[in-house]
Fold these 3 entries.
Entry 1:
Amino acid sequence: MTEIKALCVFCGSKMGASPQYQAVAKQLGSLLAERGIRLIYGGGNIGLMGVVADAVMDAGGEVTGVIPEFLMKFEVGKSNVNELIVVESMHERKSRMFELSDGVVVLPGGLGTLDETFEVITWKQLRQHDKPIVVLSVDDYWAPFENLVESLVDQDFAHPAIADLYTVVHSAKAVFPALESAPEPNEEVLTSHL
């Protein structure tokens, strides 16, 4: 597996209902800085996005934010990061974040986080990349997602090996072993649909 030098983190532009979401976002940010891994994230200064970026910077780490121009006023683009890339669209934002990273971690979040997560998993299913994807299910936040994926398999809309396209963990410390041990995509995940 490729060495992780930069990690894309998808997460909410809100804090969420549980204080654990914020605590884990802070812990993940600190661990990224400690390991010398650059954070690539959505460029916002609010919600869990702001928390994880602040934690990386507070611990002396490097942060690159990527944000569309039209969201600058809504998400208050974080100007004190090492690099803030302003792009034209959401599509360009996702592509740029992905291009700049060696892997993906997903924290709790809303529709945007779901969109980003499904897209990078789908790209992996279609063999467009082999980067590791780790879903950090704080307080079982992502259990409904796991159930939905199981339902896709049960209803014969997906091959059982789609479960290997990502790894679910329950703590910030578990993210790094999961990135290192992520399995290669199974070709049958794609070819079973053709």
Entry 2:
Amino acid sequence: MAVQGTTGKLSPKVTAVYDRMLLTRAVDNQLFDMFGQAKTVQAKSNTKKAFAYRYKNILPATTPLAEYDGTNIKQENKIVREEVEYGVGHYGDYIIYSDEIDLYDFDNIKSSFLDILGDQASLTIDTITRDVLRGGTNVIYADGATDRQGVADDKKKIVENDLIVAALKLKTQRGKKFKGVISGTTRIGTTPIRSAYVGIISPEVTTDLRNLANWKNVEDYADYGKSINEDEVGSWGDFRFVESFNNEPVVQEDADGDDVNIYLTLLLAQNAYATVTLRGKGGIQTKVKALGSAGADDPLDQYGTIGWKAIHGAAILNEAWLIRVESTASIEDGTAKHYYDYS
């Protein structure tokens, strides 16, 4: 199969007959934005920083009140507010197209370019959020390992006890289960789901989870129609799991000097993190500059540009409500991933 590069110049195939079906490319679904607090950036606001507040709970008042004797006024309690600040950045990319491709090309290639850039924007935002969540300090190493090196050396897989401990951690820290997730639309509304904690896993980890006792595939749910989305694969105990093709492993060298893939499963309670999302006016913008829009820098109207720009940021709000489980996987595919051909 011949692979051609397209840079916005006229294709040499312009005079040939071709199949007008656009070949499908691999596209990742955006998942990491679904389970956090969704924020938008207001117009004319400072977009370099964003912040969120967390109020600490007050302990139960279990001491009976004494009768007032003129002096024994109960000491007032105080509300403690913690502020979490995180950076918000502008991201974007563009491509250039020529006047000849605009005039002669056999297809509406500019629409295809815009579609590709839209996928790039989605993947960019998803990756930024993913990397923030992976930086959490609340970690369980699979099957009794004490660090990532131990996971790599002994090829540790996820076992039932890892999920039992994780659920216990979330419950004792009063982590709330999800009863709704962010809609996959331009709105900030939520879609109701069956109550559960959520796990974001790599496809390789799914096989190991399916081998656990009491695992339930999503198609076996009594309320299958209320699955989180098409990427939900099943549930175990208090957790419902969704696959992310963008949840790539990290590489750790084992004691023998071999590279081992370490998979990072993220187990979440509600309100564990916040994101400034693509939703809302100005969250993501398409930028199309027509031929000649560069003025004197393009005196013969020979090129235009198509691009996107977005504002995004993410932060962990409560480390206790986000657990990273590090493990290896029983079955892996060593074939080079075709969707990496953009590199």
Entry 3:
Amino acid sequence: MKVLVTGGLGFIGSHTVVELQNEGYEVVIIDDLSNSSINVLEGITAITGKTPIFEKLDLKEKDKVEHFFNKHKDIVGVIHFAASKAVGESVIKPLLYYENNINTLVYVLKSVVGLDTSNFIFSSSCTVYGQADELPILESAPVKKAESPYGNTKQIGEEIISDVCKVSPNLNAISLRYFNPIGAHESAKIGELPLGVPQNLVPFITQTAAGLREQLSVFGDDYPTPDGTCIRDYIHVVDLAKAHVIALQRLLKKKNKANYEVFNIGTGKGSSVMEVIKSFEKVSGQKLNYKIAPRREGDVIQAYADTTKSNGELGWKAKLTLDDAMLSAWKWEKTL
């Protein structure tokens, strides 16, 4: 069974390709290499013993997208990761984000609805909830006005898919709203590869410990949380990757209850920035050089998932711990 993974050489995409190949799927990757490296392909091959089909393709080129799907009419499912993903950059370059994240989704969906078997998994985000009124966050929580163009593209993306599902009876889709993916594959052959200065906490921690960054800034220690730092739901990327495979299997086996469904993917537990730092120091044996800095605009105080629906309906549960994720991230950093 052939599955297309767009953005398949990225952080979450590459780990999902590994899990798909471990389950026996034939994987085709599309990636334009704008925020990833061709070397990731070697890591996937080293882990699974199989090299996925790879096509370098910019999904903004509509004709090339149509040509690709004409060539691969036997695709049974699409997992769509390809998107620009830096919140801060999206504020500065909104048109780039709307073009790259919305146009590409539309072009892929236009081809997907033409397939005999149309199963679509969308890489969404907990950013759609903003600062939720209640914690933990349920899938039924209101989607609030986005804090950034990036977050808005995820909201619009979900709306597009929902609208298309209403008029395309052969299309079945699931949006996975994930919280904060961290960690790396236990083999340390693939992991998070931020280009330039990391936008996320964990690669900044590991790069600081490795001496690539002078100091980690903790943005605010005066939040109304137990230790004053922001709280997030940090999920191991391997658990997250497995959720995509389970979601796809749900559609392939026709176990979905509607042709468009939404699931939270998180651990159900919030960890503060200081707890993440302490976890890293424990598993690595390294003292981290950090300082308290002013709050950062746009940061919500705390966000963590209610995973009842994904645990029960989807039959998926996070198994790896914060310590597991920090140790794997450190092992990965040391290979770079």
